[in-house]
């Protein structure tokens, strides 16, 4: 029994009226990774070693071994990633209900502000103003912060390190609980290396996006790209992390369905 | 007087590159005692414990009293150059390509007469200093040097064959951003290197001292290099592999921690990635090119330098994972040495004690200044040795290991 | 004091040494040399043995003793060669002493014949010379050479002799002209020897103008490695007469190994220790000698043999050379075959060349190289640059025994 909605969906997709946009950065060894103080444990960058390439190691086939952390490249943060989310139900990538891997998205374009100020913080006020223009954020929607950070030169401009740490945009400490309580968002996504701002350890609480989102069993997406190809409202995101037992997150392919008109 | 070495011209790209040949390799096992001494940069011969006769060529029993107790000991290296000849013909490919070649007979003050390579500044009938050097085959040979240093003496082509002098050579410092890496770069420039490539694994990070160094000399060139990233290593080799004549692997990952006081093997794995697999990646990427250029003119590829640690020989349990990675790197270096020997590219291992840098903050003195470590590396290359122990702690541990390695193990574990 | 340093520099008087009465040395055989050979050493040694048997007119089985010298016989030794040649000797020796082999083989064989351990002993030496034989021989010559000489330029014997020639010329007054005079005379002699590989005359100027090989060694100071074999038979005089073979008698012999180890470099050979024993035992003096066949891989070693065998005093060789003519008809007939310098150096056969030539001189079979009325000849050998010097020295004084007519 075919479902008319799915049939219609495929027809829209094939006709090009619904377009697929890849929000994923290519995994390469040089793709920047979050830098913690060197005495902490560090996430592995993406590393790849050829197993064989139609050669004496495997005459008819090409394949690679790769290694990386759960938080390398374009990746998904599960609630268990943060101490505030450690006791949430179904908080790891393997236990998150699969329905949660599809959600609509709101794209808040702060790229102009970020070009001026790399430490730009998204505020409740800003979001409210955005809603004035683009409509209210629907329930259980991803809020994606378009900063054009993905267009920055890698790795120096992207990480944007100074002597006092990284300088990159993110949400402030008020907007995150507001989005959860007032808009019941699904999660928060960014183009930069974390969902929080580069200087977020100075906010109260530190790293508010991680703290509140995961503390409320919500999700994070980071290192996204191509957000400029999405409309402010109306896109649907497919973001299914790898099914790692008790995994705190996972690199993944993030796809957006977006209307072309 | 030795003519000063002339800065080599740019390579003519349409001329075939001369491939490496080696001087004769075979030696008796006893003669490998000379190789050990040369590798360590000391002058030793067998001395009979019973009658004191100095033996040469190396023997199984004393050539004088037949005692079996002939031990390797430092001996007086002076002698009289009683005969010389200049070879204009040789049966061996290596020497044929390097003729004319001067050899001579030296009557040593210590007793024996020896055949030696003779430096061009040595006068027949005069006093000479003998030194044991490794030739391109990695085996020990005697060089007769002038009694006192002469100007440019290290530039003499015969002597340069046994050394790895950075003068007019191009050097890759794999981690140019560390304190040691920067010091090595400076020392190489001072020693006359033509170019120093500074590897940078964290281009996102601003290090003012590094920027200052890079701006200080046009011979310095920053290159992206992360030894944990095969692709990065391969890309760099594809770009400058044909220019690296000395590679100094300064990349190091040093963190505290043993086994039971940690919950995971991540730190150990990170150390292995940098200190062991990094070395292997570099070798796989740069080794073949260096071998290919091992006989390419006066700035041929000559040396591979690994900065290990005295703890490659004896673990420091407080840094157990790091010690293990250094021990593994030492083992790997022996394989690399065997594999590069066919081309005559030397592997020099450096065994410092604690170096005065951030990860050794809590280590009490004495600590080696990075500049001191760098100076020892340059001297090791100029002398052409294989093993360099740097600093009092390294020397002391080395001696103590020979005396009682179990005592060292117990004491380092306290 | 070490044992080495206390060693006598002159041998004890050889008063009680037995003579070589009743021993005949006969049938000088040369298998003509070639520059390069595709054969193995077995071929050359087999040919020499066959020539000896043919020359003596005996059956193969009558040869009951064999003495072999060869550098290129490996991996075989004399024993393996016996199976190869189908021989069953009751006495067998293998003498790896290079240029001293001819004299040393005689010493071993003569005593065996005297003692009755063997009746007819074939002494043979031969080597092949493949295109790469010489380099292989030199690179693996000895442990000391491998450890302490070959890595120093791989000049082989040229380099070793260059060093001692350099020292000798500086300390003992010989000049290149002196060495050249010997080489020119030997070439003159060689032109009368059909076996000599060098067929063109050599002038002193050509000698002096030759290209340097390893200073002060120049081209004509060097022997040319080649393939070849030499041999002779040792038997009782009685047997030689029965076979109607012309032969030579042995008046005296010496050998010495590793003489003067304390010398910082070689400027003399073992003959200097033993020459008095040699001449005393023979009952002759150097002045009685009609010709001299030395081991001549380089001219310097000829000069040393003149001195150390007593033909002139140490340091006076230049005057001796200038005062004499060394051609076959000269005042001091010397290396009458042309020596290795003009005949070629066929490996271990080079250690037999002078000996076999001396036999020809004393059995009247030297052809155009014959020294008139030669009755007493001295043959000396020298071999094995194990490290920095030649270790083996030997010499023999031979005298004319029965010639062809007398033997009959």
TrEMBL record, chain A:
Q: Which Pfam families match?
A: Cyclase (PF04199)
Q: By its UniProt entry, which Gene3D superfamilies does this protein fall under?
A: Putative cyclase
What broad taxonomic lineage does this protein's source fall under? Bacteria, Pseudomonadati, Pseudomonadota, Betaproteobacteria, Rhodocyclales
Q: Name one GO biological process term.
A: L-tryptophan catabolic process to kynurenine
Q: Which SUPFAM superfamilies match?
A: Putative cyclase (SSF102198)
Q: Which InterPro entries match?
A: KFase/CYL, KFase_sf
| Name the record gives this protein | Kynurenine formamidase
- Which is one GO molecular function term here? arylformamidase activity
Automatic annotation (TrEMBL), chain B:
Q: Which residues form the ChsH2 C-terminal OB-fold domain?
A: 72-131
What SUPFAM superfamilies has UniProt attached to this entry?
NAD(P)-binding Rossmann-fold domains, Nucleic acid-binding proteins
Residues spanning the signal sequence = none
For the ChsH2 rubredoxin-like zinc ribbon domain, which residue ranges apply?
A: 37-68
The UniProt entry, under InterPro entries, shows: ChsH2_C, ChsH2_Znr, NA-bd_OB-fold, NAD(P)-bd_dom_sf, SDR_fam, Thioester_dehydratase-like
Domain of life here? Bacteria
Which PANTHER family does the UniProt entry name for this protein? BLR3430 PROTEIN
Supply the name of the protein.
Short-subunit dehydrogenase
- Native species of this protein? Azoarcus indigens
Automatic annotation (TrEMBL), chain C:
Supply the SUPFAM superfamilies for this chain: Thiolase-like
Pfam families xrefs: Thiolase_C_1 (PF22691)
InterPro entries recorded: Thiolase, Thiolase-like, Thiolase_C_2
Query: Could you tell me which Gene3D superfamilies the record lists for this protein?
Result: 3.40.47.10
Entry keyword set: Transferase
Q: Name one GO molecular function term.
A: acetyl-CoA C-acyltransferase activity
UniProt domain Thiolase C-terminal: residue ranges: 279-385
Protein's name in the database: Acetyl-CoA acetyltransferase
The protein's organism comes out as Azoarcus indigens
């Amino acid at each position: 029994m075919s479902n008319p909605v799915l049939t219609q969906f495929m027809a829209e997709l094939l006709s090009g009226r619904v377009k697929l946009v890849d929000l994923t950065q290519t995994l390469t060894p040089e793709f920047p990774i979050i830098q913690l103080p060197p005495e902490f444990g560090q996430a592995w960058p993406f590393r790849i070693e050829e197993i064989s390439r139609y050669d004496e190691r495997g005459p008819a086939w090409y394949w690679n071994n790769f290694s990386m952390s759960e938080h390398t490249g374009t990746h998904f943060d599960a609630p268990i990633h943060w101490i505030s989310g450690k006791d949430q139900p179904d908080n790891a990538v393997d236990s998150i209900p699969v329905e949660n891997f599809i959600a609509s998205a709101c794209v808040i374009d702060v790229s102009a502000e970020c070009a001026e100020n790399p430490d730009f913080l998204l505020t409740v006020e800003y979001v409210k103003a955005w809603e004035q223009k683009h409509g209210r954020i629907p329930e259980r929607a991803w809020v994606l912060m378009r900063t054009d950070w993905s267009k920055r030169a890698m790795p120096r401009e992207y990480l944007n390190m100074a002597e006092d740490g990284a300088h990159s945009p993110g949400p402030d400490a008020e907007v995150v609980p507001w989005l959860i309580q007032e808009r019941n968002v699904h999660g928060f996504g960014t183009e930069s290396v974390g969902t929080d701002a580069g200087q977020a350890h100075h906010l109260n609480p530190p790293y508010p996006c991680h703290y509140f989102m995961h503390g409320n069993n919500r999700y994070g997406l980071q290192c996204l790209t191509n957000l400029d190809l999405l409309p402010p409202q109306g896109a649907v995101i497919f973001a299914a992390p790898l099914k790692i037992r008790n995994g705190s997150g996972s690199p993944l392919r993030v796809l957006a369905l977006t209307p072309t008109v | 007087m030795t003519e000063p070495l002339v800065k080599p011209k740019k390579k003519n790209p349409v001329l075939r590159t001369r491939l490496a040949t080696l001087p004769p390799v075979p030696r008796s096992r006893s003669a490998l005692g000379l190789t050990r001494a040369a590798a360590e940069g000391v002058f030793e011969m067998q001395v009979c414990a019973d009658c004191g006769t100095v033996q040469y060529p190396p023997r199984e029993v004393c050539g004088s009293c037949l005692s079996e107790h002939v031990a390797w000991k430092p001996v007086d290296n002076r002698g009289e150059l009683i005969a010389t000849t200049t070879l204009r013909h040789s049966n061996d490919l290596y020497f044929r390509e390097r003729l004319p070649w001067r050899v001579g007979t030296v009557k040593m003050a210590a007793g024996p007469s020896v055949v030696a390579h003779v430096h061009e500044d040595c006068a027949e009938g005069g006093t000479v200093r003998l030194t044991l050097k490794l030739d391109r085959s990695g085996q020990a040979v005697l060089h007769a040097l002038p009694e006192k240093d002469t100007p440019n003496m290290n530039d003499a082509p015969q002597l340069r064959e046994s050394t790895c002098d950075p003068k007019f050579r191009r050097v890759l410092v794999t981690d140019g951003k560390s304190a040691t890496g920067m010091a090595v770069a400076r020392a190489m420039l001072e020693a006359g290197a033509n170019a120093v490539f500074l590897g940078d694994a964290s281009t996102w990070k601003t290090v003012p001292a590094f920027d200052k160094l890079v701006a200080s000399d046009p011979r310095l060139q920053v290159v992206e290099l992360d030894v944990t990233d095969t692709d990065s290593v391969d890309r760099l080799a594809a770009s400058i592999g044909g220019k690296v004549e000395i590679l100094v692997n300064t990349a190091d990952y040093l963190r505290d921690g043993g086994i039971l006081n940690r919950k995971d093997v991540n730190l150990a794995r990170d150390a292995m990635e940098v200190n062991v697999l990094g070395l292997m990646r570099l070798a796989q990427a740069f080794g073949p090119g260096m071998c290919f250029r091992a006989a390419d003119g006066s700035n041929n590829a000559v040396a591979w330098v690994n900065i290990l640690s005295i703890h490659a020989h004896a673990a420091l349990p407080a840094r157990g994972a790091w010690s293990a990675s250094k021990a593994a790197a030492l083992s790997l270096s022996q394989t690399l040495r065997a594999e590069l020997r066919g081309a005559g590219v030397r592997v020099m291992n450096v065994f410092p004690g604690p170096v005065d840098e951030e990860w050794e903050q809590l280590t009490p003195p004495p600590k080696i200044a990075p500049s001191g470590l760098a100076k020892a590396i340059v001297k090791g290359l100029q002398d052409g040795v294989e093993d360099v122990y740097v600093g009092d702690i390294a020397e002391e541990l080395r001696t103590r290991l020979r005396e009682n390695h179990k005592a060292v193990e117990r004491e380092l574990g306290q | 004091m070490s044992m080495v340093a206390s060693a006598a520099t002159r041998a004890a008087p050889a008063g009680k040494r037995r003579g070589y009465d009743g021993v005949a040395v006969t049938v000088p055989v040369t298998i003509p040399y070639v520059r390069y050979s595709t054969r193995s050493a077995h071929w050359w040694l087999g040919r020499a043995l066959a020539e000896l048997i043919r020359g003596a007119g005996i059956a193969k089985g009558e040869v009951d003793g064999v003495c072999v010298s060869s550098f290129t016989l490996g991996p075989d030794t004399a024993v393996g060669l016996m199976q190869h040649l189908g021989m069953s000797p009751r006495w067998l020796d293998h003498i790896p002493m290079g240029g001293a082999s001819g004299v040393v083989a005689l010493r071993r064989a003569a005593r065996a014949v005297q003692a009755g351990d063997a009746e007819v002993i074939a002494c043979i030496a031969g080597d092949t010379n493949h295109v790469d034989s010489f380099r292989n021989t030199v690179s693996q010559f000895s442990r000391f050479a491998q450890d302490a000489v070959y890595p120093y330029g791989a000049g082989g014997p040229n380099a070793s002799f260059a060093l001692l020639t350099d020292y000798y010329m500086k300390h003992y007054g010989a000049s290149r002209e002196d060495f050249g005079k010997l080489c020119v005379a030997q070439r003159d002699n060689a032109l009368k020897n059909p076996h000599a590989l060098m067929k063109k005359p050599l002038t002193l100027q050509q000698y002096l103008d030759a290209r340097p090989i390893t200073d002060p060694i120049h081209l004509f100071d060097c022997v040319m490695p080649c393939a070849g074999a030499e041999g002779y038979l040792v038997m009782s005089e009685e047997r030689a007469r029965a076979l109607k073979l012309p032969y030579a008698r042995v008046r005296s012999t010496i050998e010495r190994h590793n003489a003067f180890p304390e010398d910082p470099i070689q400027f003399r050979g073992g003959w200097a220790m033993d020459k008095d024993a040699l001449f005393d035992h023979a009952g002759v003096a150097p002045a009685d000698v009609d010709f001299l066949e030395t081991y001549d891989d380089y001219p310097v070693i000829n000069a040393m043999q003149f001195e150390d065998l007593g033909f002139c005093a140490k340091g006076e060789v230049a005057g001796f050379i200038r005062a004499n003519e060394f051609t076959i008809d000269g005042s001091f007939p010397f290396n009458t075959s042309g020596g290795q310098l003009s005949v070629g150096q066929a490996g271990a056969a080079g250690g037999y060349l002078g000996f076999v030539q001396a036999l020809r001189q004393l059995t009247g079979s030297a052809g155009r190289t014959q020294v008139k009325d030669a009755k007493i000849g001295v043959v000396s050998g020298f071999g094995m640059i194990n490290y920095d010097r030649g270790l083996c020295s030997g010499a023999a004084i031979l005298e004319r025994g029965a010639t062809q007519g007398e033997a009959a």
